[in-house]
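Postdoc handover notes: sequence design on the structure in folder B. Input tokens:
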């Protein structure tokens, strides 16, 4: 584990040809325990190599199809695979290389990605072999009870750079986690509470939110016109293992679905827009026993571009639990020249990673 690999390659973040290393393996997934997943089928990380003290190459295999993160009509991989892969990469490096105990709880504070080459992410006859050139940083680090870390990754497929992504996380021991989670981590009554809190919202059809299966829609709307994040604790992907609050990936999925719904209602084109970039900040935990409202706001357009920018705020009670800024790239449509009709109403410390 301590061997360093000498590679004459660019530094992460600098433009140029992406790293390709023949010793990085894509043969089988790493232990599910090391990426905090319960199902082996949900593990995408296959290998990692340490290049220098704070730099790693991480290999991942993306499936040709997936129950939730499947390719779009043009065959482009689901962009949220980027976030989930970076999440798994950080957790794997934390345990395998950076000395963070398996029992620590990981709490995400912010994540982001930008896809620079969608064509590189088109699925062919075999699964995609994805390489992450990862720069590791310690941030507000106070071991052994609290570890603060950040990863920034340059993502490539077959040597073709196609995206940038990052994630910031705190890993805390059980005692500190329970102090952070003032309601406790027992999760007692969560099933019933979730059912009651979401009963007033009608779940949108899968096609309206860009999903194939009814169970994958996490977006609801109330009679008053509020958008709601709907929680299904039995969803095998979004709730892969039990928890005491709504995970970051669930909130991000809700924001993505709301963005898809609003944009495709607007353009009436099922494949009219693709998610190009995301920046998500999670200032607080989202609890399971209280409704989460999703509020949408159009951002100023990028001049002379085909990009629409949206800001989705997840609100619980009187406070924000997440803010997601998204950029949607339109195929053959100029976002800067169009007016947007959004429902204003109530449009509609972190999250587990």
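Designed sequence:
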């Amino acid at each position: 584990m301590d061997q360093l690999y000498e590679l004459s390659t660019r530094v992460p973040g600098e433009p140029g040809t992406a790293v390709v290393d023949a010793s990085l393996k894509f043969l089988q997934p790493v232990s599910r325990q090391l990426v905090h997943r319960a199902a082996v089928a949900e593990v995408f990380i296959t290998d990692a190599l340490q290049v220098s003290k704070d730099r790693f190459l991480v290999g991942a295999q993306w499936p040709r199809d997936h129950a939730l993160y499947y390719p779009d009509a043009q065959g482009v991989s689901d962009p949220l695979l980027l976030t989930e892969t970076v999440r798994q990469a950080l957790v794997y490096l934390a345990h395998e290389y950076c000395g963070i105990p398996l029992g620590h709880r990981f709490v995400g504070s912010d994540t982001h990605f930008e896809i620079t080459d969608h064509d590189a992410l088109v699925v062919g006859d075999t699964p995609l072999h994805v390489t992450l050139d990862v720069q590791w940083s310690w941030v507000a680090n106070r071991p052994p009870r609290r570890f603060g870390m950040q990863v920034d990754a340059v993502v490539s497929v077959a040597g073709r750079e196609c995206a940038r992504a990052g994630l910031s996380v705190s890993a805390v021991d059980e005692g500190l986690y329970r102090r952070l989670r003032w309601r406790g981590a027992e999760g007692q009554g969560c099933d019933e509470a979730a059912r009651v809190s979401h009963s007033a919202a009608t779940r949108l059809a899968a096609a309206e939110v860009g999903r194939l299966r009814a169970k994958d829609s996490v977006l609801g709307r109330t009679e008053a016109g509020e958008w709601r994040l709907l929680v299904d604790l039995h969803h095998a992907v979004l709730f892969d293992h039990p928890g005491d609050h709504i995970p970051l990936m669930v909130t991000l999925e809700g924001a993505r679905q709301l963005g898809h719904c609003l944009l495709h209602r607007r353009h009436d084109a099922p494949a009219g827009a693709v998610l190009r970039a995301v920046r998500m900040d999670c200032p607080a935990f989202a609890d399971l026993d209280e409704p989460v409202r999703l509020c949408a706001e159009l951002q100023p357009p990028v001049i002379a571009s085909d990009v629409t920018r949206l800001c989705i705020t997840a609100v619980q009670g009187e406070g924000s639990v997440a803010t997601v800024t998204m950029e949607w790239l339109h195929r053959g449509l100029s976002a800067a020249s169009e007016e947007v009709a959004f429902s204003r109403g109530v449009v509609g410390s972190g999250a587990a990673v």
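Context for whoever picks this up: Residues 263 and 347 are 14 Å apart (CA to CA). Don't rerun without checking with the PI first.
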